[in-house]
């Protein structure tokens, strides 16, 4: 393990709290485009929170705020009860890992890629036989004989799982994922989903997952947030929200055939 | 000077040399190659420009106050900064400030070390040495730093995914741009390394040739050339390094976010 101090939110508060967050951005023609407005939700330890909605609705912009790849225009985000705006961004990102939409593999073997987060922290790098590497590979459903392979020669599905493994090898308390299954076919996507569920349960992580894939959300999410045009239209336990959608927006979204129809 | 076998070129010798230009003009005229007028103009311009710079150098070399010599160096640096700025297609954020301070510290430092300790003439501001030496170091360093700046801009533009992936895994900005920095530094050094590799085989360097023609022993001229190439390499490396170390920070916000 990496000696990362565990974050214990005071008074049983959720791990991540997003409070009244708004985001506006210059649209290049001198006007301000509203990306997000008044977004409030929280994500708890050991639970998977899915942010679902049509593309262009602000989902990706939203999770980029949680590890401060960008900053919100209004509102604040708390990690373990502490405002992230006051934290050292480096320490924040070492606690809140993120897997971007397109898996980027650094040159070198899969093992090199897995060692990178530890190299960044100037910590001892685990070798191929170490408990950390074995355990992470197992959780991500990657075969150990892939370790010495050139990471860029892996299939896209393996690369997705490799970037998941790379993000969790340091056991961060929070994990953010942007469309982790967008490039995957259904069986490969299911493998990734199972891996994600294992990791979340085993390590007690708070997982926040952005997806437009309702099937995936229905399968693994504990909590679900429906985001459209920058606003939360509906939120609650995933099973409940998907079974009995209340907002007109979500009902319309669920009815669109290209979303895979009903959740799985 | 002519006691060491140096042949001074008199005006009559020069006129004879010009006969070669007339020959070239005549050749293109009678063979209907149509370049006669261009050759004439080019030759005339060259004469006027060189006479002007000859007088200017004569004037500059007679300057004996350190402040004045130093200000000439600053003007030279300013001109080269302006040239670099006008040639850069896409400039990094804060281009002039980053470039200017790197040139000042990098070239200035290396020139001082070279002039004061390696060549060791006195006084240190003797313009006959200081100005041409600084000029050579400056010209090469500016070229190197420009290449580094241009490459860094391109690399960071192309590697946004890689850089943000690294940030997401807990990298510092410096760690996240490591590959971009390495490629940019290498781009800065390549012309100098190529020149060094070809030196003496493919090309005889201009400075050495000039010294030999004006009567210096080849062995001495070679030593000078070696020393100068060391100074140029040092200047290029120092200036490009300073530029990159200041430059990459400009692509990040204080919260270590990659700027859009």
Automatic annotation (TrEMBL), chain B:
Q: Which residues form a coiled coil?
A: 142-169
Q: Does the keyword Transmembrane apply?
A: yes
Give the InterPro entries listed for this entry. Answer: UPF0014_fam
Q: What is its main location?
A: membrane
What does the entry list under GO cellular component?
Answer: plasma membrane
Q: Which Pfam families match?
A: UPF0014
Biological source species:
Oryzomonas japonica
Q: How does it sit in the membrane?
A: Multi-pass membrane protein
The record lists the lineage as: Bacteria, Pseudomonadati, Thermodesulfobacteriota, Desulfuromonadia, Geobacterales
Residue ranges of the TM segments: 12-30, 42-61, 67-86, 98-123, 129-149, 184-204, 224-244
Family from the record = Belongs to the UPF0014 family.
Q: What is this protein called?
A: Iron export ABC transporter permease subunit FetB
Q: Which domain of life is it from?
A: Bacteria
Q: Where in the cell is it found?
A: Membrane
Keywords, A to Z, come to:
Coiled coil, Membrane, Transmembrane, Transmembrane helix
